[in-house]
């Protein structure tokens, strides 16, 4: 499953990955794809996030903490670091006495290409 994810550029839903695998001739079932992606995300071998529509999306990312810019039209994904966010999140947690704080910050929008195609 990790290989299938590696073959995609951006975040992809279990359903879309299942369709792609089927188109490639794989008889794998949708439930199996869901379970495999969930396992990859749980073990840290894949990133997962919720789209603004509430759909779970997955991607084989670089390891280490990072954030994402995701195009809502074509799915283009850019991994971004965000020092300001790390600092801000750490400070907020400390001020409220939270330890072992983690955060998820992903930015959804339209990439430059899609923006141009859609007329801004
Ligand atoms: Zn990632
Ligand atoms: Zn795009
Ligand atoms: Zn961060």
Describe what this molecule looks like in 3D.
By secondary structure, the chain is of the alpha+beta class. It has two domains: 64 residues, Arc Repressor Mutant, subunit A (Orthogonal Bundle), CATH 1.10.10.10; 56 residues, 2-Layer Sandwich (Dna Ligase, domain 1). It has five helices and six strands. Strands 1-3-2 form a three-stranded antiparallel β-sheet. The chain has a three-stranded mixed β-sheet with strand order 5-4-6, with no helix packed on it. Helix 2 crosses helix 3. The longest helix is centred in the N-terminal third of the chain and has 13 residues. It starts with a helix and ends with a helix. Bound molecules: zinc ion (3 copies). This is Transcriptional repressor. It is found in: Cytoplasm.
Low-confidence stretches: none
The run of helices and strands is HEHHEEEEHEH
CATH topology of the largest domain: Arc Repressor Mutant, subunit A
User: Which distinct ligands sit in these coordinates?
Assistant: zinc ion
**Helical content, roughly?**
25-40%
CATH homology superfamily of the largest domain:
Winged helix-like DNA-binding domain superfamily/Winged helix DNA-binding domain
CATH architecture of the largest domain: Orthogonal Bundle
- Largest sheet properties: 3 strands, antiparallel
Shape: globular
SS content category? alpha+beta
Task: Give the count of structural domains.
Answer: 2
Q: Largest beta sheet: what is the strand line-up? A: 1-3-2
Quickly name the level 1 CATH class of the largest domain.
Answer: Mainly Alpha
Overall strand count = 6
Protein name: Transcriptional repressor
InterPro entries: FUR, Fur_C, WH-like_DNA-bd_sf, WH_DNA-bd_sf
Keywords: Cytoplasm, DNA-binding, Metal-binding, Repressor, Transcription, Transcription regulation, Zinc
Family: Belongs to the Fur family.
